[in-house]
């Protein structure tokens, strides 16, 4: 499964927008989304899912166009509910004593009137399990938000949630995780290039030599561990 953070908006790095509606990509963000779409050219993508927020859907659109898929809104990929902190300026939040808890002990934090990081991670875990079961052995794109992707990567890496802030997820970056019956395999984190070893349309179109189909299947890393 390829996780893509939404592209840059006018508030990126300045405000904690949370689930507020009406926030669209900036001009730079639209360029980033187009470049992200180009990275998926030739990939054998089974589905493109997106958080319901506009900035995520606008990022997913070029990917869907390139891969010939439609954007499917998946509420499980939505941003963390920041509650009373929604819309607050990050510069002001960093001055609050609670900010240290958010950074150093996120497993013990709940946003006032909103979601906890533990609930966020559990929601993402359930969403990933459901999607991987729907698309066994297939490449799926999930466009979401920084904290959501960091929570998934921490889980896949076996990291404590309290360490997930150490993971950097930039705007419109891609991170790849193979899910399956065994331990998840993290294939890439915060990438802005084409990730090698993922299913391609060219490989999918090649007929397997008689008697070797099982060997080709074992050689595909995403089929080894699921979507």
What's a concise summary of this model?
The protein is α/β, with parallel strands linked by helices and 227 residues long. It is built from nine helices and six strands.
Overview of the structural elements:
A six-stranded mixed beta sheet has the order 3-2-4-1-5-6, with helices on both faces. The protein is built from nine helices and six strands; from the N terminus they run βαβαβαααβαββααα. The protein starts with a strand and ends with a helix. Helix 1 (27-39) runs parallel beside helix 2 and helix 5 (117-134) crosses helix 6 (146-157). The radius of gyration is 18 Å and the shape is globular. It has helices at residues 27-39, 54-67, 90-93, 98-104, 117-134, 146-157, 201-205, 213-219, 221-225; strands at 2-5, 45-50, 71-73, 139-144, 174-178, 185-191. The chain has a single domain (2-225), classed as Rossmann fold (3-Layer(aba) Sandwich), CATH 3.40.50.1240. The chain is an alpha/beta fold.
List the SSEs and their pairings.
Blueprint: E1 2-5, H1 27-39, E2 45-50, H2 54-67, E3 71-73, H3 90-93, H4 98-104, H5 117-134, E4 139-144, H6 146-157, E5 174-178, E6 185-191, H7 201-205, H8 213-219, H9 221-225
Parallel strand pairs: 1-4, 2-3, 2-4
Antiparallel strand pairs: 1-5, 5-6
Notable features of this structure?
227 residues; alpha/beta; Rossmann fold; six-stranded mixed beta sheet; 6 strands; 37% helix; disordered C terminus
